[in-house]
Outer membrane lipoprotein-sorting protein
Amino acid sequence: MNRIKLIKVLFQVVLNLPAVVVAQDLDKILTRHFEAVGQEQILSMRTISMDMREMNGFSKTKEYTVTKKAPSKIIIEGVWKEQRYVSAYDGVRAWTIAPWTGVQVAQLMTEREKALLLLDVGLGSPLYNYAGLDQELTLIGSEYAQDKSHYVIRVTRPSGFYVDYLLNKKTYMVHLVRIYKEDNVEEVEKEVIFKNYKKLGAFSMPFEFENRIDRSATHVIVDDIVFGQGAPSSLFKMPEN
């Protein structure tokens, strides 16, 4: 190899080195995050059911139940003005019953609605590579929030859907999720703060979430949680209208 070719090869190695280092750093961060959460132990439960309530100040706005089944099924069921509403994903199709739209039968979700629902589809960490989720994770830097330093991991979906996750550098737990409007990473649609982590045997989970949209905030509280009770696949299937 002559000197010019050697210089070109070395130059290319130097150019690629930062990307390799960042990828290695991301792998280490994710490994520690999954260990802190107890991801393997949570997945072994196969199903999880949570009774939740949403609070606006001191007023309760709604109650609902979230049921998840590994690897990637979810159904959210509640009552709105004495009418049942549902958001669900059966591993293939995402569907909803939304009576506030004037339609009281099941309909397929839009791609945007589906993307938002899939943020919550997994058992355990939202950064885990659950089956059926086509997403790319990138370590984009660090950020201070509430006087603590956090890693910032960006999740990108093929549709141009961007979400940032802030992981506490000491605990490796998710502190905040930042959801952007459509494909615009300059405009935030919503932020969710994870609060009140509790240790449940071999794993840890947040029992409170603060949803921030513009200047308004609501709190979601987990009142009860049950692991491993089972859930038939038919529960998640879209009904025939």
